[in-house]
Amino acid sequence: MIQNKEQWLEDASKKIKVPKEQIARAFQAELDGAPAIDAPLEIPDIMDITYKYSYGGISRFFREIRDNRQLYGTRCPSCGKVWLPPRINCNECYEPTTWVKLGGTAAIVTYTIVYYATSVFYGKTPYVCAFVRVDGADTLIMQNVFVNDVRQAKVGMKLKIQFKENRNGDMGDFWFVPAEEAR
Amino acid sequence: MKKVGIVGIGTTPFKARWIEKTYYELAYDAAKLALEDAGIDKKEVGGVVYGIYNEFFERQFMPDVYIHNYIGMGLKPSVRIATGGATGGAAVFVGWTWIASGLYDIVMVLGVEKATDNYNYAVGHATPETLKAILFSGDMTFENPMGLTAAASYALPLIAHIDRYGSPTERQMAMVSVKNHKNAMNNPIAQSPKLLTVDEVLNSKMITYPFKFYDNCLYSEGASAIILASEDKAKALTDHPAWITGVGLSLDKAFAGERDDITIFTSSQYAGRDAYAMAGIRNPRKELDFAELHDAFTGAEILSYEAFNFCKPGEGGALVEDGVVEMTGDLPVSPSGGLIGCGHAVGATGVMQTGEAALQVQGRAEQRQVKNARVGLVQSIGGPATAWTAAMIVERIETATAKPGPKKKKRNQRKRSKK
Which of A129, B171, B235, B368 is the most exposed place for a label (fewest CB within 10 A)? Predict the structure, then answer.
């Protein structure tokens, strides 16, 4: 039996960064009951790593979005393919690519609507994830499409880019909305 | 290349949670069952190939290291395969190469997975945290931040397919769910044996459009092991080995947005093409007696019919309506219940499916036996938007010299631990 329940909850909360009440609820049987000595014993645990991650050669893509509200792809000088997401070399031609400015218009090529999400997105459902073709790009990019009613999402729907007000230099800095709704 | 036989099979029950066992304890159970089924001692095993998908599920990086010791295989050759949902199938593929190359005579392929030690404290449930663990497999820069789920990853090609062909319909997909839940009624290891109606599937809660609750497989925990053997060893161990006569493995472009045609499971097409060619199969629709497909989601099973050339693109849904893929049809798909019926204990799944195919061609599949099953296909899919496929052809080979008679060795019946 747990000797000092309050201390145990405090330690657990600090360790896994979850409020004490939620831990108490999950471990009610262990805290209140007297489980048999050989009953399965669960512990609160976490695997947690922090990063200072470098975008390497595609850093400009995120700087252009963050600082200039501008979408860029890359073009292979050999085959002419325009990559979005960008890459600094072409995997067909094995040549370095060059940056190319893209406009903000696009269309849905395929999509889905998420009604049951991961822990990170749990409170945000339903939302649309789509493969979008940005005009001028040869590949599709995965993005969220925000529509008033998720059921309006359709293959072929014309879209316009929107940028977040306070941008952090990641893919959450922009999304797409139906072209006619764009401000 | 040398012939590769399957001589031992062991699978633990697939359950929503194995609170009473760790991943290495589950692995031990499957290893023991498979060794007993083969009638061999662990000393005879030349090496082990592990199929374990997700470090966050197991709460352990390099979990194979700890299993290898736990099951008493210390100092033997070992490698761990992690190819998403295709982990089990790809582990079988690699185990096959170890025998086919002549390197070893007996190889164990051992798949295991936990998933529901993950826990979302705010919601009070495992699944959102399990999905979060999986999403680390999506490209961390460009896809992870978009909130995809495994279901979404399959829904994207499916919606494009529906847009082009008008099929599969939601009703056709529901029929796959009914079939696989029902097939699982005959499988003692299955997590979700159930008699459902098409309407119950159609009216179940929307999870990821167009998949309703019953269109999805459930996360599962469990382990499965098979023992592979060279021809001489296989024939010494049993009169009726199952043979893996064809294998294929393909990894498509990671970003589905770069693919030429997003409506096709291209990796399945390629893996299937290679496996068929090796096994000499020209007309799979006619020559296959059954298939164990990767029905992580109902629509995926239907698109797989097309990728594996059971029918033309766009015609997969009709195979369901015509009853072809039912147990009573002429190409039963997932007699085991598949992932929808058995659950998806990721690393274990492809091994379990291969073992199931072997039981079928050996005539040992009990209540789920397909009559006169001689040749079967196994498919194992994984990665972002079905990037990976491993495919295997499992066969019974009748030779002119093989005469019916008493078995060479008294074999243990396939044993299962109690639920």
Answer: B171
CATH 2.60.40.10 fits A56-181, yes or no: no
* Average pLDDT rounded to a whole number, residues B307-334: 98
Contacts with B208 from chain A: Cβ below 8 Å:
112-116
Sign of CA dihedral A161, A163, A164, A165: negative
> In angstroms, how far is CA B268 from the centroid of its own chain?
13
> What are the residue ranges of CATH 2.40.50.840 in chain A?
56-181
Whether chain A has a CB inside 8 Å of the CB on B43: the answer is no
CA–CA distance, B176 with B305 (Å, rounded to integer): 12
**Range B255-272 average pLDDT:** 96
Does residue A124 belong to the interface with chain B, where contact is any CB pair within 8 Å?
yes
Chain segment B359-395, per-residue pLDDT in tens: 999 999 999 999 999 999 999 999 999 999 999 999 9
A150: three-class secondary structure by DSSP: helix
* Chain position carrying tokens 């230099």: A169
Question: Which residues on chain A are in Cβ contact (under 8 Å) with B255?
Answer: 85, 139-140, 142
Maximum CA extent, chain A: 71
pLDDT for res A1 = 84
